[in-house]
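Quick check before the chapter quiz. The format below is the same one you will see on the exam, so make sure you can read both the input and the output lines.
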Amino acid sequence: MYLLLTSFTNSIFAQANFADKCIGKWKGMMYIYGKGQLRDSVTVELDVQKTNQPNTWSWKTSYLSKTMPMIKDYKLLLKDSASQTYVTDENNGIELMDYYYDNKLYSVFETHGVMLTSSYEIKGDQLVFEVSSGKKIEGNNEVANYSVLNLQKVIFKRVK
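Here is the expected output.
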């Protein structure tokens, strides 16, 4: 009985990870802000599917801009189920670390002198995606401050 209960509990935990909750097709409007002002908007589709590789999901984002359409075809890998640590594999040698807490996946990274924060959060039947970016502000040796110059935000809804 203990083995059956343990197996059932482990099965529920394994299925309750963030990526499994995101499986499906999503659609929303991305609002793009610069220095506090709305600059643009674009329709975005997200398709999340389990792959045939263990602990790996396809994470395909399509930006349906008329002027600059773009597809980001990434993979999300669960690296450690105990700590809910993930990796976003951009399929070009770039991997970003992701950390899951309380229905929200966080990533913080720096590239070319720009600090970026990224998050996906499940809120009821919605998936909220945000990316903010900024540069280091001169300060003292105790604290490094960063501006928040840009924000991109999408509230995805599942496509039936």
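If your answer matched, good. The longest strand covers residues 37-50.
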